[in-house]
Design the sequence.
C-alpha cells in the first residue's frame, strides 16, 4: 500500500513540476509582452500595452494575421473536402490494397516535416510556386489531409452501417442518404477534424518556414525570424507577437476541447481490441 | 393494405473470397406467407436477407419478383421494408421524423405525412411519443418505431432481421404476437430471420432451416418439428437422442434397427431399406417411463443426471458405459434409480447417416 | 444468364474510386513524387552535369557535415529515452484514472498546440541566465552563479522534452487504458506483486505501443530544427542534420546538396526504425520464452 502511495506522490510531484514549468514558460512570455522594461528582476517595474501596437506596425501583423488565417481556413476547407469521402470509403469498405493505402496516408504524419519538407520545397520551387501563399498551402496540405482522414475515420466507424441501409430500404438514394443521415451524424466529426487541422496549421512551422517568403509568412514563421534575427527588435515586442499567436491558438483550442477529449487530439494507437 | 405480391423466387449464392457463405439457396415464397430463416449463427440467414433486400450483392443467382428480375435493382427502388436487430433508428431525428422519413423522401404533403404517421403510431401503440428521440425510448418502443417506419410505406415484402434478439425474454414473447398480428392485419408477405426455434415455430407459415449456407429443410412448423429430414434439423429442433443403427426387416409397417446398445423398431419410411445404416432419433419428451403393453422398444437404465425444469425434469439415463438416453418427464425420478423406459415406435424418426 | 461477381470488385466501385482519388492523388504527387524528385536531384549535383554521388561523398568527407549525424543522434536518443520512460511512468501510474485527470490532460495539450517556436521563446526567458528559474535559485541562495540552460545542448533537450512528453504521454495513456483491467486483477489474485504484474503481464502488452511511441518520438527528435536554432548552439554543439540541410538549401542555394542531406536524414530515421522493429522482435521472443521456462 505504501508503495502505491509513493508512486502516486511521485506522479503528482512530477506533474506539478511540469505544469509549473509550463506556466513559467508561458507566463514569462506574457509578462514580458506587457513589460515596459525588464532586467534581472522577478517582475518588471512597470507595465504597458504599447508593445502590442509596436509589434502590430513593425511586424506588419495585420498582413501576417490575414495571411495566417487565410492559409489556415483554406487548408481546413480543402482537407475536409477531399478527406471526408476518403475517410468514408476507408471506414466502410475492405479491399485488397487497403493496408497499403492506410500506410500511404500515414507516411506524411510519421515522417517528420523537415525530412520531406526539403524535397517538397525543392519541387514546389521548381514549378515556380515556391515562396508564396499557394506554396505554403500546398505544402501544409500534405500532412493535414492524412490528419483529417485519420480523425474522421473513427467517427464514421461509429455510425452503424445499418443506418445507411435503413435509409436505403426506405427509398433514399445515395445522395439522400448522404444529405439526410450521414452528414447530420458526422457534424461532430467534421468539427473535430476541422478544428484540429486549424490548430495544427496555425502552429505549423517547418513546412511554412521552408515555403515562406514574398509575403507568405505565417505568424509562427514571423515569430521565428524575429527571434532569430535577434537584437534588432526589442524582445518585449517579439513576446507581444507571441502572445497574439498564443491567443489565436488558445481560442481555437478552447472551442475544439468542447467537442473532443485531449486524448483524441493525439495519434490514437489502436490497441488490438478485436 | 400493402401492395401485395404473388411470388418471390430466389436462387442465391454468396462467396466471400474462398468461403462460400450461401450455396445455391433456392426458395419460392408465396404472397401473404410468413417465412422464417432459422439456423445457428453463421449459417447465412442474415446474408440471405441482405441479398434479398439488395443491400449485399450476390455472387451468383437470380431473384424474381412476380415475373420481374430484380437482382440489379438498387435497394431503394425495391419497395421492401426492413427491420434490423439493432433497430437502426436515426438518432438525430424524432420518432415522428423517423417514421415519416420514407414519406418525406417521396415529397409528400405535410398534412398527408402527419396523418399517416399518426395512424401508424396508433397501430403500434406509440401515440404521444412523436417528439421523443430514440435515445429516450426503451428497447421495445424503439423496435415498434422501427416496424412502424417500415410498414408506413406499404412494403411489398417485409424483411425482419432478428428484430427481437436484443429484447428481454418476456418482451420478446409480447412483441412476437404483435408482429404476427400486424402481418395478418395488413396482409403482408414477411421473411423473418432468427436463431430462436420457439419464435420460428410460433410465427411461421413455413420455416427454412440453414446450416453453413446450405438449405437443410423447408417445411411447415409441424413438419420441421415432427418430421425432421436430417440429423442437423432434428438436433436443432430438440431431438436429443440419436442411435446409429443397421436397418433390418420391416414388418407390419415397422422397421427394425439394431444399434450398439439398443434394438429398436420404428415406423417404416420410404428411402430406408433393410441392410442400410440409418439413425433413429426420438425426443426426450416422447420417451415414456414404464412398460409398453406389447413390449416393443424396451430399455432399462440408471438415472445418471437430472435437470430440474420446474414442472418437469430432464434426466439422463445411462444404458451402458457409452450410451445415454435423455428423458423429459413430470414423474419424479431420483439419481441412481433404475428405470424402465419405452420408446413408442411412432415417435421415432428415421434419419439418414450424414 | 448471370455474371458471377466477386465481392472485392464491388467494394471498389465507381463511388469508392471517386471518393479516394483526390486525396490519394494528392498524397502521391505531393509526397511520394517530391521524395523521388529529391532523390533524383540529390544525384545531380550543381557542378556536375550528370549523375553523380558527389554530394554524398562531399557530405561524408566533410567533418563539419558528417558530424551532424553524430550530434543529431546524441540529441535524439537520450531525449527519446527520457521522454518515453517518463511518459510510461506517468501513463502507467495514471492508467486507472487520477484526480483531476481531465484538467491535467487539457493542460498537457497546451504545449502540443502552442508549438515549438512559442515554447522555445518561453524557454529562453524562463531558463535563461537572467530568467525566472535562475533568479529564483539565486535568490534562494541555492546557486551563486546562474545555470547555463539555454543556447546549448541542454536547452534543446528541454525544448524537445516540453513538446514531446505531452504527446507521448497522451498516446501511451490512451494505449494503456485500453488494456483490459481484468488481466491485472487476475494476475494479482494469482499472487503477483505490482512490480511482477508490470514486468510479466502489462509490459509485454504495452510493448507494441511503446515501440511505436519510441519510434515516433525518435523520428521527430531526429528532425529537430527550430529548437536547435533558437535555444541551442546552431553553429556548434547542436548543429543538427536538418540545420545542415537547411543551410545548403537556403543559404548556399545548393538544392542538390540539400536534397542529398535530406535523403541521408531519411535513411538514418529509417535505419533507426528498423533497429526498433528488430529489438521489438527480440524482446517478444524473450518474454514469451521466459514465461514457459522452468
Sequence:
Amino acid at each position: 500500500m505504501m508503495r502505491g502511495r509513493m508512486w502516486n506522490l511521485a506522479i503528482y510531484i512530477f506533474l506539478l513540476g511540469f505544469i509549473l514549468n509550463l506556466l513559467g514558460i508561458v507566463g514569462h512570455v506574457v509578462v514580458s509582452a506587457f513589460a515596459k522594461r525588464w532586467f534581472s528582476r522577478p517582475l518588471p517595474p512597470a507595465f504597458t500595452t504599447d508593445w502590442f501596437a509596436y509589434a502590430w506596425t513593425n511586424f506588419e501583423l495585420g498582413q501576417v494575421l490575414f495571411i495566417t488565417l487565410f492559409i489556415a481556413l483554406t487548408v481546413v476547407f480543402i482537407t475536409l473536402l477531399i478527406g471526408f469521402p476518403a475517410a468514408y470509403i476507408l471506414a466502410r469498405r475492405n479491399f485488397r490494397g487497403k493496408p497499403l493505402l492506410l500506410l500511404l496516408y500515414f507516411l506524411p504524419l510519421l515522417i517528420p516535416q523537415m525530412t520531406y519538407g526539403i524535397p517538397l520545397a525543392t519541387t514546389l520551387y521548381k514549378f515556380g510556386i515556391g515562396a508564396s501563399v499557394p506554396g505554403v498551402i500546398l505544402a501544409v496540405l500534405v500532412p493535414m489531409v492524412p490528419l483529417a482522414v485519420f480523425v474522421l475515420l473513427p467517427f464514421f466507424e461509429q455510425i452503424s452501417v445499418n443506418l445507411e441501409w435503413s435509409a436505403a430500404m426506405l427509398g433514399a438514394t445515395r445522395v439522400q442518404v448522404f444529405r439526410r443521415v450521414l452528414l447530420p451524424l458526422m457534424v461532430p466529426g467534421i468539427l473535430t477534424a476541422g478544428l484540429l487541422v486549424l490548430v495544427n496549421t496555425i502552429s505549423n512551422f517547418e513546412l511554412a518556414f521552408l515555403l515562406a517568403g514574398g509575403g507568405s509568412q505565417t505568424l509562427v514563421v514571423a515569430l521565428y525570424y524575429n527571434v532569430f534575427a535577434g537584437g534588432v527588435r526589442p524582445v518585449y515586442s517579439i513576446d507581444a507577437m507571441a502572445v497574439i499567436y498564443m491567443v489565436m491558438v488558445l481560442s481555437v483550442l478552447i472551442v475544439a476541447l468542447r467537442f473532443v477529449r485531449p486524448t483524441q487530439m493525439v495519434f490514437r494507437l489502436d490497441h488490438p481490441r478485436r | 393494405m400493402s401492395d401485395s405480391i404473388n411470388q418471390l423466387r430466389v436462387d442465391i449464392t454468396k462467396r466471400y473470397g474462398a468461403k462460400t457463405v450461401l450455396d445455391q439457396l433456392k426458395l419460392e415464397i408465396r404472397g401473404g406467407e410468413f417465412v422464417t430463416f432459422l439456423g445457428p449463427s453463421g449459417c447465412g440467414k442474415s446474408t440471405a436477407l441482405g441479398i434479398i433486400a439488395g443491400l449485399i450483392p450476390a455472387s451468383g443467382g437470380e431473384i424474381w419478383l412476380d415475373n420481374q428480375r430484380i437482382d440489379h435493382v438498387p435497394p431503394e427502388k425495391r419497395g421492401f421494408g426492413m427491420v434490423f436487430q439493432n433497430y437502426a433508428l436515426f438518432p438525430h431525428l424524432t420518432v415522428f421524423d423517423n417514421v415519416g422519413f420514407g414519406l418525406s423522401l417521396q415529397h409528400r404533403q405535410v398534412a398527408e405525412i402527419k396523418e399517416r404517421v399518426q395512424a401508424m403510431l396508433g397501430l403500434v401503440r406509440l401515440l404521444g411519443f412523436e417528439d421523443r428521440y430514440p435515445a429516450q425510448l426503451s428497447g421495445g418502443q424503439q423496435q415498434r418505431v422501427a416496424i412502424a417506419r417500415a410498414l408506413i410505406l406499404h412494403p411489398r415484402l417485409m424483411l425482419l432481421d432478428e428484430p427481437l434478439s436484443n429484447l428481454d425474454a418476456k418482451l420478446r414473447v409480447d412483441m412476437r404476437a404483435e408482429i404476427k398480428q400486424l402481418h395478418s392485419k395488413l396482409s403482408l408477405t414477411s421473411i423473418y430471420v432468427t436463431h430462436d426455434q420457439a419464435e420460428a415455430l410460433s410465427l411461421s407459415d413455413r420455416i427454412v432451416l440453414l446450416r453453413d449456407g446450405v438449405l437443410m429443410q423447408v417445411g411447415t412448423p409441424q413438419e420441421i418439428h415432427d418430421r425432421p429430414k436430417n440429423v442437423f434439423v432434428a438436433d436443432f429442433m430438440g431431438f436429443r437422442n440419436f442411435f446409429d443403427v443397421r436397418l433390418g426387416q420391416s414388418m407390419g409397417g415397422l422397421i427394425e434397427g439394431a444399434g450398439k446398445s439398443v434394438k429398436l423398431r420404428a415406423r417404416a419410411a420410404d428411402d430406408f431399406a433393410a441392410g442400410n445404416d440409418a439413425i433413429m432419433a426420438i425426443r426426450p419428451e416422447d420417451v415414456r417411463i414404464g412398460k409398453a403393453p406389447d413390449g416393443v422398444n424396451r430399455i432399462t437404465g440408471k438415472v445418471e443426471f437430472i435437470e430440474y425444469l420446474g414442472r418437469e425434469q430432464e434426466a439422463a439415463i445411462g444404458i451402458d458405459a457409452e450410451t445415454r438416453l435423455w428423458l423429459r418427464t413430470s414423474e419424479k425420478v431420483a439419481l441412481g434409480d433404475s428405470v424402465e423406459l419405452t420408446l413408442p415406435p411412432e415417435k421415432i424418426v428415421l434419419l439418414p447417416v450424414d | 444468364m448471370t455474371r458471377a461477381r466477386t465481392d472485392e470488385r464491388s467494394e471498389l466501385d465507381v463511388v469508392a474510386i471517386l471518393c479516394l482519388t483526390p486525396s490519394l492523388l494528392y498524397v502521391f504527387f505531393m509526397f511520394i513524387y517530391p521524395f523521388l524528385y529529391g532523390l533524383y536531384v540529390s544525384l545531380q549535383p550543381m557542378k556536375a552535369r550528370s549523375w553523380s554521388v558527389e554530394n554524398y561523398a562531399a557530405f561524408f568527407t566533410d567533418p563539419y557535415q558528417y558530424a551532424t549525424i553524430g550530434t543529431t543522434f546524441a540529441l535524439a536518443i537520450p531525449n527519446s529515452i527520457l521522454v518515453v520512460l517518463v511518459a510510461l511512468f506517468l501513463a502507467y501510474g495514471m492508467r486507472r484514472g487520477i484526480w483531476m485527470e481531465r484538467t491535467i490532460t487539457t493542460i498537457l495539450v497546451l504545449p502540443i498546440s502552442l508549438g515549438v517556436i512559442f515554447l522555445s521563446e518561453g524557454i529562453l526567458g524562463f531558463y535563461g541566465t537572467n530568467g525566472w528559474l535562475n533568479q529564483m535559485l539565486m535568490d534562494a541562495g541555492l546557486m551563486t552563479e546562474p545555470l547555463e540552460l539555454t543556447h546549448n545542448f541542454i536547452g534543446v533537450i528541454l525544448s524537445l522534452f516540453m513538446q514531446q512528453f505531452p504527446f507521448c504521454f497522451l498516446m501511451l495513456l490512451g494505449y494503456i487504458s485500453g488494456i483490459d483491467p481484468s488481466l491485472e486483477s487476475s494476475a494479482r489474485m494469482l499472487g503477483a506483486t505490482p512490480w511482477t504484474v508490470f514486468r510479466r503481464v502489462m509490459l509485454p502488452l504495452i510493448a507494441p505501443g511503446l515501440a511505436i511511441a519510441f519510434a515516433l518520438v525518435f523520428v521527430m527528435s531526429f528532425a529537430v530544427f527550430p529548437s536547435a536554432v533558437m535555444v541551442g548552439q546552431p553553429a556548434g554543439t547542436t548543429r543538427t542534420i536538418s540545420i545542415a540541410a537547411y543551410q545548403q538549401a537556403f543559404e548556399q542555394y545548393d538544392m542538390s546538396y540539400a536534397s542529398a542531406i535530406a535523403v541521408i536524414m531519411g535513411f538514418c530515421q529509417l535505419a533507426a526504425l528498423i533497429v526498433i522493429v528488430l529489438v521489438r522482435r527480440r524482446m517478444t521472443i524473450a518474454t514469451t520464452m521466459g514465461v514457459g521456462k522452468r
About this structure: The mean pLDDT of chain B is 91.
